[in-house]
């Protein structure tokens, strides 16, 4: 129904100002927009709006606004760069290591050990350039909220035919943000508020990350060189499922 509302807005020249307000990825006043849409569109000359859109209008507006809250929060985190030497940022990295590799001492800030959890160099800072702090926040969310499962993922990825956990996580964050920007996830943000925006979006990321891991383990590619093709198929299948209103199922989150 939210898609139908967006299509209705796109067709109406009279609603161009309302459309810009609702779809510019900034939160809006749901009640004010609800009243304005009813005032402009709910007339006997517009039976389709009255029969199909009006009964569910408030719920549709809440979905769109929830997506806006999630998008604003995600963009603020993405645009915040990881700063090597920033005490808080470095503490988050150490926490990530401790959660994912319990009992294994990190030798130094700059060490090849970071490769054990899928970073590319001797320090993870350069790997966060594309997604900024959003990439780190998502990894930490998975490690904090689903610790046992996240540790299991890392163990699996350290096999000879594993994939780089951290780099893949950042790719999944990028994919999730792409879906959010396209408003493909609106139905999953009906109850999203400014306070819940990060957690609600992070749960979407976690589901996608676990779904990719399941795909990799099921396909059992020979080595990491298969990553681009496996990830491309995963994206295509995930987008197809989401277009039908379904996110990949929870896969053993604990």
Descriptive account of the structure:
About 60% of the residues lie in helices and about 0% in strands. It is mostly helical and about 250 residues long. Helix 3 packs across helix 5, helix 7 (about 130-145) packs across helix 8 and helix 9 (about 165-180) packs across helix 10. It is elongated.
Please name the defining characteristics of this protein.
254 residues, mainly alpha
Q: What's the layout of helices and strands?
A:
Layout (H helix, E strand, L loop, with lengths): L1 H10 L4 H8 L6 H12 L5 H7 L3 H22 L8 H14 L31 H14 L1 H11 L7 H17 L15 H23 L7 H17 L11
Q: Provide the β-strand percentage band.
A: under 5%
Distance between the termini: 33 Å
Contiguous uncertain segments of 5+ residues: 250-254
Provide mean pLDDT, rounded.
85
User: What's the tally of helices?
Assistant: 11
Report helical residue fraction: 55-70%
Q: Radius of gyration, rounded? A: 21 Å
- Shape, principal axes of CA atoms: elongated
User: What structural category arises from helix and sheet content?
Assistant: mainly alpha
Task: Please report the total strand number as a whole number.
Answer: 0
């Amino acid at each position: 129904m939210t898609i139908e509302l967006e299509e209705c807005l796109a067709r109406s020249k009279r609603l161009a100002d309302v459309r810009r307000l609702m779809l510019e990825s900034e939160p809006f006043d749901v009640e004010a927009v609800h009243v304005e849409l009813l005032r402009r569109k709910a007339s006997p000359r517009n039976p389709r709006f009255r029969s199909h859109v009006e009964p569910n209008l408030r719920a549709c507006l809440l979905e769109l606004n929830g997506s806006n809250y999630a998008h604003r929060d995600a963009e603020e985190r993405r645009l915040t760069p990881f700063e090597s030497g920033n005490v808080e940022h470095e503490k988050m990295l150490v926490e990530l290591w401790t959660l994912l590799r319990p009992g294994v001492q990190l030798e130094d800030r700059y060490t090849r050990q970071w490769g054990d959890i899928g970073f590319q160099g001797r320090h993870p800072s350069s790997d966060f350039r594309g997604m900024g702090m959003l990439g780190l926040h998502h990894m930490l969310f998975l490690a904090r909220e689903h610790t046992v499962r996240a540790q299991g993922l890392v163990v699996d990825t350290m096999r000879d035919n594993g994939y780089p956990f951290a780099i893949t996580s950042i790719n999944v964050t990028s994919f999730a943000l792409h879906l959010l920007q396209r408003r493909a996830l609106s139905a999953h943000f009906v109850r999203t508020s400014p306070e819940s925006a990060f957690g609600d979006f992070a749960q979407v990321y976690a589901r996608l990350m676990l779904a990719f891991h399941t795909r990799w383990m099921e396909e059992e590619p020979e080595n990491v060189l298969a990553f681009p093709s496996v990830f491309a198929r995963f994206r295509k299948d995930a987008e197809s499922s989401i277009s039908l209103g379904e996110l990949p199922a929870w896969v053993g989150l604990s």
